[in-house]
């Protein structure tokens, strides 16, 4: 099991350790993953949580609490409830209340996080306002569409090249250089690579 204590705000450590003891869950610090920030698994009847090592301490705390909430819900309900159903949302919210103070988060994160807790989403980065706020604390910030100028070209992980166009509500219209196909950005993240849906 990895030592998580250097990855989270110091004030959160006693509460997290208490939860880990209750659940007997192992924490693993993972290399950066494109598709997820963390996960919870049951392996041979043992609970295991992995969290990406490149998260800032505030994102790490939220993600760890997210996964611990999955562990508590699984411990009580096993697979009889939805992964991000009402049981998980209620558990995650009650656990996060332990950290809703200036010892664990900055004032600007607390404001956005409080709004997030009113309508919890399955992923932190599905909440654009929270994602943008947390991103300010990343040590190595990755480019996202919000950073680019209109008509600027960019490349994604599979080497496809796009041109950023105007914003349509919360999504950016993008045109693939080689095919001329139009796409919309459907996820914002400083961690995930861009995910698009085709419009043509």
How would you characterize this protein structure?
The chain is an alpha+beta fold and 200 residues long. The protein is built from five helices and eight strands; from the N terminus they run αβββααααβββββ. The protein has helices at residues 13-23, 57-77, 86-96, 107-118, 128-135; strands at 25-30, 38-43, 46-52, 153-155, 161-168, 171-176, 182-185, 196-198. Strand 2 and strand 3 form a beta hairpin. Helix 1 packs parallel to helix 2. It starts with 12 loop residues before the first helix and ends with a strand.
* Shape designation: globular
Please give the alpha-carbon distance between the first and last residues. 47 Å
- Proportion of helical residues: 25-40%
- Spatial order of the strands in the main sheet? 4-5-6-7-8
Query: Helices and strands, in N-to-C order?
Result: HEEEHHHHEEEEE
Mean pLDDT: 86
Please outline the major beta sheet: 5 strands, antiparallel
Instruction: Tally the helices.
Output: 5
Class derived from helix and strand content: alpha+beta
Unreliably modeled segments: 187-200
Percent strand equals 15-25%
Whole-angstrom Rg: 18 Å
The tally of beta strands, per DSSP, is 8
């Amino acid at each position: 099991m990895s030592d998580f204590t250097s990855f989270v705000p110091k004030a959160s450590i006693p509460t997290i350790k208490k939860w880990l003891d209750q659940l007997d869950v192992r924490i693993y610090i993972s290399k950066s993953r494109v598709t997820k920030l963390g996960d919870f698994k049951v392996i041979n009847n043992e609970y295991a949580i992995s969290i990406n090592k490149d998260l800032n301490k505030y994102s790490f705390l939220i993600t760890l609490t997210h996964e611990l909430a999955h562990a508590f819900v699984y411990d009580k309900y096993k697979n009889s409830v939805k992964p991000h159903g009402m049981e998980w949302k209620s558990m995650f919210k009650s656990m996060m209340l332990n950290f809703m103070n200036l010892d664990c988060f900055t004032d600007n994160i607390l404001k956005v996080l409080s709004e997030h807790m009113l309508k919890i989403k399955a992923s932190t980065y599905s909440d654009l306002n929270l994602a943008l706020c947390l991103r300010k604390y990343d040590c190595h910030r990755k480019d996202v569409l919000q950073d680019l100028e209109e008509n600027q070209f960019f490349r994604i992980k599979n080497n496809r090249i796009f041109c950023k166009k105007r914003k349509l509500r919360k999504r950016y219209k993008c045109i693939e250089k080689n095919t001329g196909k139009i796409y919309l950005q459907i996820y914002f993240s400083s961690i995930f690579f861009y995910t698009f849906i085709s419009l043509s």
